[in-house]
Amino acid sequence: MGPYLQQILLSSGAGAIFAALAIGLVLTYRSSGLINFAHGAIATYVAYTYTSLQSSGDLPVPPLPNPLAPVEGVFGVEILDFPDFVDLGDGWNKWPALAGALAVAALLGLAFHFLVFRALRYQPPLTKVVASIGLMLALQSAVVIRFGGSRPPPIEPLLPPSVRSSTVDVLGTIVPWDRFVLLAVTLGLTAGLWALFRWTRFGLHTRAAAENERYATLMGISADRQAALSWMLAAVLAGFVGILVAPTTSLTPFNFTLFIVPALGAALLARFTSFWVAAVGAVGLAMAQNVLLYAEIDHGWFPDLNLDAVLPFAVIVVAMMARGQVLPPRGAVETGRLPQAFPSPWRPSLALTWVALAAAVVIWGPFDYRAGVTNSMIGAILALSLVVVTGYVGQISLAQLAFTGVAAAGLASFGADAGIPFPLAPLLAALAATAFGLLLALPALRVRGASLAIATLASALAIDELLFRGDGWFRIEGNPNRSFDDPSMFGVEFGPTSSFPINGDEIPTPAFGLFVLVVLVLACGAVIRLRQSRLGEQMLAVRANERAAAAAGVNVAGVKLAAFGIAAFLAGIAGALNGYKLGSIKIDSFSVLANLSILAFAYLGGISTVTGALYAGTLFASGIGVVLGEELIELGRYETYVAGVALIVTAVVNPQGIDGFDRQQRERVKRWLRRRRARRAARLTAASAAAGAQGPGP
Amino acid sequence: MPPLNCKVGPGPGRARRMFCDDLPAKGEEGDSIVLITQSRRWLIAVCTVVALAAAACGGDDSDDNGGGAAPATTTAAPAAEAPDDEPAATTAAPATTAAPAAEPEAPAEESKPPIKMAVINQEDGLYAWPEVSENTRIFVDWINANGGIDGHMLEMDLCTSGDDPESAQACAQRFANDDSAEFVYIATILNSAPVYEALGPGGANKPMIGQMLWDVPDSLQPGLYSTDPGLLPLAYEAIRFAVEEDGASSLAVLVDDSDIGEATLAVVDYFLSTLGGATLTPVKINMGQADFLPAMTRAGVADSDGLVLLIAESAACQPTRDAMEALGVGDVPAYLGDWCVGEEFRTSGTAEGWRMVTGGRGALTNDPQAQMVRDVYEAAGAEPPAGLAFAATMNMDFLRQVLELAVERAGGVPTGADVTAAAEEWSGSILLGPDTMDCPGVGIWASTCNSAAIVISLQDGEWVALEDFQLIDVALFDPLLG
Amino acid sequence: MSAASRADGAGAVSAASRADGAGAGAVLETEGLTVRFGGVVAVDEVSLDCRSGDLTGLIGPNGAGKTTLIDAVTGFLPGNTAGRVRFRGRDLTRMAPHRVAWAGLTRTWQSLELFDDISVRSNLDVASRRLTPLGAVRDYLRGSADASSVDQVLELLGLADVADRQPRELSQGRRKLVGVGRALVAGAALVMLDEPAAGLDRAETVWLGDRLRSLVEAGYDMLLVDHDMSLVLRVCDRIHVLELGSLIATGTPAEIRDDPTVVAAYLGSHGSSR
Question: Using CB atoms, which chains have 3+ pairs under 8 A with A?
Answer without folding.
Answer: B, C
